[in-house]
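pipeline: protein-struct stage 2 | run 1193 | Amidohydrolase family protein
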Amino acid sequence: MVMSKPSFGGLACRYLALCLVALCVMTCPAAAEDQGSSPELLIRNVRLVDFAADEPRIRDDHSVLVRDGRIVAVAPTDQLAADAGTEILEGNGRTLLPGLTDMHVHLWDEAELGAYLASGVTTVRNMSGMPYLLEMRDRIADGQLAGPRILTTGPILNSRGPNAQLNHQIVETAEEAKAAVRGQFEQGYRRIKVYSNLNRAAYEAILAEARALNMPITGHTPEGRRIEGMPEQLPFDIAFDEILDDGFESIEHVESIVWHGLRNRHDATRGRALARRIAAANVAVDPTLVAFANLMRIAETRGAHLRRQGAEMLNPFVRSMETEQSERWTNEDASRAGDDLAFYLEFTRMLADEGVRIVAGSDAGIATNIPGISLHDEFDLLLAAGLTPAQVLQAATTNAARVVGQRQEFGQIEPGQRADLLLVKGDPLDRIESLRHPQVVIAGGRVFDEQAVEALWRSAKQTDAGRTARNVLQAMEVQGTRVDLGH
């Protein structure tokens, strides 16, 4: 049983109908308000926790000086004094750690930004690029909009087949694939996301052009054309192991790895061998366990999970597109889904044990994965898989920075790093759930105290289906999406 993304292709009419009844553009007061920081900020008397190496680095009774959105000094509290005019944030012995990174999200609207920040997520890697996201990214970087720093791929590149969707950029030939990569680069994207239906000619051309433009590739491992009998009776056209030396920034979804790399077999012996090969290839993995777990819980609760607390922050436009999938999972075999999840947890533990670099992603914005909250749900599942709290925190901080090639930019508490920081009560190395409710969030030096964090939560509920519809249709027009989903 492999998780499926929302089926945009079969719902194009509903897609257009929503646009015709688009609501007036709503603002996001808390998300858009300028929460700007003072020229200098001194965070006093905190317990620092980060991962300069594989083991946690803990420094008690320290202070951190921030200027212009960057950390400029880290020292014992009695060695770091504030100048006149410096804003002082008293830590009172609480824990300060780097902001979290969600390595797999789907951003649809400004409203979602508040949920990420309020959850302590200060960087996101968006995995389905659209033009409005480039503008949103730049507005955040310029301080015009409060939100996590956005890294984004371009539009998903795929070929025709069972997993093709209306918002994918469909490429069938090497020439089309090369032009698509070049076009995304010219639009301002610097990452490529590939998908499972890509045929060999298109995928190889994408790979070559991306290398020429120094654009990292991430996503699902391409399988080639799928024909009847795959994968149970016939191997995939493109073997999983062929992908391992292709330089993926990360491979997404353990269920996709099990599907492609193990031909959907829950075989622990072969799973262990596959984990070793992935480790030997030095390829990072983003398990996104929560994405499948949420589908399983829909089945377990016969749909009640779709209405759980926080679901109001899911984008209504996207939810309307997923009615068919929600109904399917409401009637799915929960026992079978539970068996699948159990193996995905086991395989994730194998990956960690064999030394694969794990990063943390939630697939938030898709299906019933709530922005911000779902990353913490992913943490719980990684713990259930057997990772330690330290390994989970490392996955969401320094591992993420390493994988995207920005270890000097974020993920640690060091001079020169972005001031993306969380102040929490308690010890997340002992009780990781303390991260669910940070008392202070600092994003690029901008301070969000407890009142501001509450305002961010309120803004996250002000979703706008009409605005999202306009954003997505504009994206389809710009990229010239080929609405050709023949299987």
